[in-house]
Predict the structure.
Amino acid sequence: MAKTASKTNVQNRALLKAQQSICRFCGQKPEVVRVLTPAGKAQMFRKCCAAAGIAA
Ligand SMILES: [Zn+2]
């Protein structure tokens, strides 16, 4: 294992991690909270999309 190869791996992993931590709806850092509807049902609410103006 060459030192340069491991350096590339770290960069690739960092890139992959950055891509995974992007919301597929608004393209920002995902921020999801679980909220209860008035009916008492649990629902996932994306704060990141709300901040981006996608979801109300
Ligand atoms: Zn989002």
Summary: Residues 23, 25-26, 28, 30, 46, 48-49 surround zinc ion (CB under 6 Å). Helices lie at 3-20, 47-52.
